[in-house]
Amino acid sequence: MPEIKITPLGAGQDVGRSCILLSMGGKNIMLDCGMHMGYNDERRFPDFSYIVPEGPITSQIDCVIISHFHLDHCGALPYMSEMVGYTGPIYMTHPTKAIAPILLEDMRKVAVERKGESNFFTSQMIKDCIKKVTAVTLHQSVMVDNELEIKAYYAGHVLGAAMFWIRVGSQSVVYTGDYNMTPDRHLGAAWIDKCRPDLLITESTYATTIRDSKRCRERDFLKKVHECVEKGGKVLIPVFALGRAQELCILLETYWERMNLKCPVYFALGLTEKANNYYKMFITWTNQKIRKTFVQRNMFDFKHIKPFDKSFIDNPGAMVVFATPGMLHAGLSLNIFKKWAPYEQNMVIMPGFCVQGTVGHKILNGAKKVELENRQVVEVKMAVEYMSFSAHADAKGIMQLIQYCEPKNVLLVHGEAQKMEFLKDKIEKEFKISCFMPANGETCTINTPTKIPIDVSLRLLKAEAVRYNAQPPDPKRRRVVNGILCVRDNRLSLIDIDEMCDEIGINRHVIRFTSTVRFEDPGPSVKTAEKLKTLLAEKLEGWTITISEANISVESVLIKVEGEDDSTKNIYVSWTNQDEDLGSYILGLLQSMVQ
Amino acid sequence: MKLYCLSSDAAKPCFVLSFKELMIMLDCGLSAHSVLNFLPLPPVPSTRLASLPNYTPPHLNDPLLEGELKECCGRVFVDSIPEFCPPLDKVVDFSQLDVILISNYTCMMALPFITEDTGFKGQVYATEPTLQIGRFYLEELAEWVAGAGGAAGAARRWKELLHVLPPPLALAARPRAWRRLFAPASIARALARVRVVGYDERVDIYGALDATAVSSGFCLGSANWVLRSAHEKVAYVSGSSTLTTHPRPINQAALRGADLLVLAALTQTPAHNPDHMLGDLCVHATVTLRAGGSVLCPVYPSGVLYDLLECLSAHLDGAGLAHVPLYVVSPVADSSLAYSNILAEWVSVGKQARVYLPEEPFPHAALARGGRLKHARSLHDDALGDFRQPCVVFAGHPSLRFGAAVHLVELWASNPAHAIIFTEPDFPYADALAPFQPLNMKAFHCPIDTSLNYSQANKLVRELRPRELALPEQYAGAPGAAPRPCISADVPTVLLRRGAARRLGPRRALTRATLSGALAASLAPRELRAGLRAAPLAAALRVRDSRVSLDEPPRRAAPRLELGAPDVDALVRELAREGVGDARVERGPDGCIVHLPRHDTLLHVERHATHVFCEGGADLRQALRRAIAACLPSV
């Protein structure tokens, strides 16, 4: 039995540092190459020494596939390609290729310049790494080599996020990366066709949640912002440059327009503005509504949202500011937070997950005093709100995807172990397929049925089709084809015996046996034949028996009744050498009947 | 495999390929040459056109013909809504089509004629830019033809009297098959049927074939189609370009080694080099503008227009004419210009690199932001409120029979300072200008057709090495006639003319199936001769979505099959070894009879068959079987 082996180096019963090794049909594929945001030591990157303890890694990996630009999916790529020394092919979609280097550079700056880390990749390494990337488009079938084929599907989640279908020979796997099964303000829903892979590797961030209606959460968010600015408060929304920021901007923009609000909305200069430009260029990757209306009005040309300048921090009066980074661990968002935190009328809204150790994580846990790096202590009097807008599929969405693509096995990654257990049970019960959830470093082996390609002679198939179609329709009837299997240079073909004889220049030799049974049965021979048929039908259930006048045929065995009326009948039973079993059985049957 | 040709215009092809019980239409081009026989439809009423004299053929008094024909400078035009020449509908029943594959947006304009009100039930596949830009072309055409008012009824009588009319009207090809343009509603319905595909996406066609669109380098989203099954490969090359312009370059590797190569839509102006023409155009425009005249380019709303905007604006900047405004007038101008800038995945590498910065791939977005380039839905659009001359106007339609260009030619025709520059290759420019004669404005012909020319196409065919080639007859050299550029390849070539059907391509003998591992493991192939091993196989056959799989049969394994002819003496020896020793052999003309009197049994041994009349018991029969098996090879 051919096998598929999967070893998560990251994201096995865990969120962050997605990196999954897949081997099938002699090919090794790395799915995502992410970093862990919660660690500052070597645990940050996947353990590449697992692949080869020493020596070059390139010969061990046939290709690397990156699903989307989030750092927990691509953060370790420059490390792998420039520092570990991987030189093989890397695949990602066009938007991912455009945006990933910006996020990598941003992260590098925070890590090296603010935290002073060494042994980190440089700006040049990011550029060199991205140069090696092959960009793919949706549904394009890319042949990595003669046997390995990959194809991207739309995944929603963030701009350019893709699911990948991977095939080697007759085995296939779908890796979802992160995906979203409900369309949001700017992206469409993930979609895949019924590709029936042997294995579906799916994320399971929200394995147990069925999220409340998105509309409610949006209304909540807008209400809170509106109330705060009405009272003259300032609202800080720490975001990451791409993804949620655009969705929230669209949300506020349309709300401001509808309610005719005058209070200024800003976003931090730099990243986000550039990011909006990427959204404008890659508008084909957004949802249908934005694509349809972009000629009249590009959704990412915001009228109410203006660039932010540092001097605005101390401006009096209400305002809403989007600032990076999203976890309040450094940069502009932290600066603004320091200034605004001590005032009750202000508010901070955290729209996403925060890693342990960050200021964002602390205030979400209710800390009223936060100590910063330089021992400065900030008193937090402002309102702190948490709203999850993160675009992952919930349990319902995951089940929906399984229904869409009909996999034979499912493997869960990118989620918490406990929640995975729950989902695993549900999948196994509902779809009656096996479900796996290996931990990091644990290898999971999946057996797949063998399917061997074979060339079948059309003459053979057509002859079978003629026979089959001549019979009354019965969808349950088995169709059987008889021929000769030929093996040449390890290539298989199934051909008609006559075709083979023609080819090798030898004739077929048919051997036929005929035996006679004498039967005292007065009356016309047709009558006798009918009697025999009734008897045979009793004994030979499930065989096709036909009768025409005094000739009976049981599939390929012929029985002929001869003789004058009112005298002894000769029953001839005739069969070819190939039907010896059936023929001798029928002969025996008739002989015993006669006695 | 059979190929039908339904179009007489090689640049607007329409073929139907029947293969594996499928009917596959390749492109559905709409030939618009017929509109040149009609009077222009001015968007603003024109007194000159309205006052053209009626034409009546000499010695003919037919009241039905009254008012159908007008004369302008010695040429006769039909005064009616223009009609188009759709693909032939008598050869193939459109309701039987399974699939339509579209190569690019210039070759899909007849789609509503094929899919609407014909009982068509199949699928239509095209790339996303092809669908979108094709939509622009169709909507623009429909708006212009409909927008000019349907006041003039359909003239029909002249079609009956072709023989008495002067040329070129008398030479019109089968005008009775010409049709009025479709309604906007049927355009929307036809386009709603299109399924979008990406380059290199394998589209499964009812399980029988894979169809793949591969880049052809001609325009945004233009594709050549590769049809592939496990044993056959057909490549359809239509509208390809090996030049470097704005679209993704041609993918030749995917077309290599096809069993059949169908070649269509080569350049329509083989004598003109597109690069030189672009240079000429810039020079003519500069000279005209310097002299205070304006320039009109009758163009389609997409395609070469993007290159013209890019090159001309840069050239004018260099010539100190950066203040000259550029206008694009089309009902779809805004959409077309905006849309081109979001097709990052469909443009050349150079343009793609700009997107990564991120900047728009085409410079016209920047020109529009700077106020240099203005686009308007029509000539009376508010966007043209500050219309300044001299200027450069890009407006359709290139045939000069409808659209904003008609009005501009009427307006500027008398002024020799102005110039009209023809860039689209679809129409002969002298014919296009005929109803506007006498003309004082300058007219230049700078056709820019980036499709393959004949030497490029010949080189391509040599490199692709197809086993067979199919072409519209126009592309073949005519023996005896004056030598002209043609396609000549050293592979079997089939020529097609409108209405023709030819049987071609490989004869199918094998099809691909899958064999289950369990069944394969139960077989023990024997060596028949060096390099060939064989075993009899009985398998349960499953055909699902045209895919064949072979599984373990419900009953018994396949028995061995005997081959060759037995040597009778050897048979007798084998029988003796089995203890059946009293064989008497009678030799006859067709074989022998081996008589076993003791067992009441006869063996008729012939060349291809042995018939055993056995009245003995099962033991005897088994002994006979062993004896025969011992002197016959088997598989």
From TrEMBL, chain A:
Q: Which InterPro entries match?
A: Beta_Casp (IPR022712), INTS11-like_MBL-fold (IPR041897), IntS11_C (IPR048662), MBL (IPR050698), Metallo-B-lactamas (IPR001279), RibonucZ/Hydroxyglut_hydro (IPR036866), RMMBL (IPR011108)
Q: Where is the Metallo-beta-lactamase domain?
A: 16-210
Is Hydrolase tagged as a keyword? Answer: yes
Q: Where in the cell is it found?
A: Cytoplasm; Nucleus
Annotated GO molecular function terms are: hydrolase activity; metal ion binding; RNA endonuclease activity
Query: Would you kindly state one Gene Ontology biological process term found in this protein's UniProt entry?
Result: RNA 3'-end processing
Alphabetical UniProt keywords: Cytoplasm, Hydrolase, Metal-binding, Nucleus, Zinc
According to the entry, every stretch annotated as the Beta-Casp domain falls at 245-363
Pfam entry (one): Lactamase_B_6
Q: Which GO terms describe its cellular component?
A: cytoplasm; nucleus
Taxonomically, the superkingdom here is Eukaryota
Q: Which cofactor does it need?
A: Zn(2+)
Q: Which family does it belong to?
A: Belongs to the metallo-beta-lactamase superfamily. RNA-metabolizing metallo-beta-lactamase-like family. INTS11 subfamily.
Check the record and name the PANTHER family matching this protein. CLEAVAGE AND POLYADENYLATION SPECIFICITY FACTOR FAMILY MEMBER (PTHR11203), INTEGRATOR COMPLEX SUBUNIT 11 (PTHR11203:SF37)
* Protein name as annotated: Integrator complex subunit 11
Taxonomic source organism: Arctia plantaginis
UniProtKB/TrEMBL annotation, chain B:
Record's keyword terms, sorted? Cytoplasm, Nucleus
Domain Beta-Casp: from-to ranges: 305-433
Q: Which GO terms describe its cellular component?
A: cytoplasm; integrator complex
InterPro entries found in the cross-reference section: Beta_Casp, Integrator_9su, IntS9-like_C, RibonucZ/Hydroxyglut_hydro
**Does the entry feature the keyword Nucleus, yes or no?**
yes
Per the record, a Pfam family?
A: IntS9_C
| Protein origin, superkingdom | Eukaryota
Q: Name one GO biological process term.
A: snRNA 3'-end processing
Where is it chiefly localized? cytoplasm
Compartments, record wording: Cytoplasm; Nucleus
* Name this protein carries in UniProt: Beta-Casp domain-containing protein
Give the source species: Arctia plantaginis
